[in-house]
Design a protein that fits this description.
mainly alpha, single chain
Length: 85
């Protein structure tokens, strides 16, 4: 039962990754907009840029991890079934 619940929190496809990254970007841009109100001027805009940069870096890492996991899974399956490769 716990295994089924755990699987809900695992990103399995690139589409799921894009949905997660989109949600992160929405939150980050909202937080960035609040920063421009709390800290008027250059400081707010720099914090806004930092929130956007964090999403870019996190999104790239998520997508790289998905690609790595898919390649590792394909390699493991090829080792188990060498005649299908």
């Amino acid at each position: 039962m716990l295994n089924k619940i755990r699987r809900l929190f695992v990103i399995k496809t690139r589409f799921e990754a894009y949905l997660i990254i989109y949600a992160l970007a929405l939150g980050a841009m909202t937080r960035g907009a609040h920063y421009t109100l709390q800290y008027p001027g250059w400081g707010g805009y720099l914090l806004w840029a930092a929130t956007a940069g964090a999403v870019f870096l996190g999104g790239a890492k998520i997508l790289d991890a998905i690609r790595y996991e898919q390649e590792a899974k394909a390699k493991a399956e090829a080792e188990v079934n060498p005649q299908e490769a």
